[in-house]
Amino acid sequence: MPQPATHEPGFYMIALLIVLLILAAAVAGWFLYNQSQRRGKVLISPPERPSRQPGTETNGEEQP
Amino acid sequence: MSGSLMRGNDLVGRPVVDLTNGEDVAEVRDVVFDPQGGLLTGFTLNERGSWTGRLQAVLSIDRVSSVGTGAVLVAGLEGLEDSPVTDDGINAASDANDEVTDDLVVTESGRTLGTVRDVVIAGGPSPRVVGFEIAGGDVGGGFIPMSRRGAVSASALVVPDDYADRLRNDLAGLAEQLGELDKEDS
Lengths: 64, 186
Fold this sequence. Notes:
The complex is a heterodimer. By secondary structure, chain A is mainly alpha-helical.
């Protein structure tokens, strides 16, 4: 009766190593992305725009 | 001018400490300042720790007790993570991402002095930007006071013509120049 085909023991080791490398790359990529999101800067406040309320646009006359 | 002088980028990453319980509730992400006068308007925040993310809450300057070289002190920010405090001005600055670094520094007559590397902040209860660290120009690198009458935008910083002579190599020299300017204005 023919024996079922099996992989060499080294195959599973290599497969596990590849999975671990992919996981490590994913974690490193996430860490680098997170660090880029956390990086702070010195920013200038944008100038305040005059607030526009509905119904205030008139032909110059004041609303009662 | 009151308070210690510090670089703006040195303030990034500093802990925000609650005076009521001594806990560091967050850390500074962005430093936002008003170009008209240089007053700090507030900060955006990160959670403490390298593996954590950004906080939705922002810290308006009116909730800050003092800004020091080692930390930003606040009084009472319970539940900062649970109930985000928003501020339209600070959020708008963060969204617009108008960074002052790499702004061109020019005199009123059009001479280019260099580009901005960092801001210099005078700490204390009313922190404000009082100067800039510049580099890359024909006058060399150094620290220059923020002009009381000049203009600051997201692309350029305008200073009076005589400010080219006020460039100094360190913060102590800048402090001396700021003292002289205070005397001239008084």
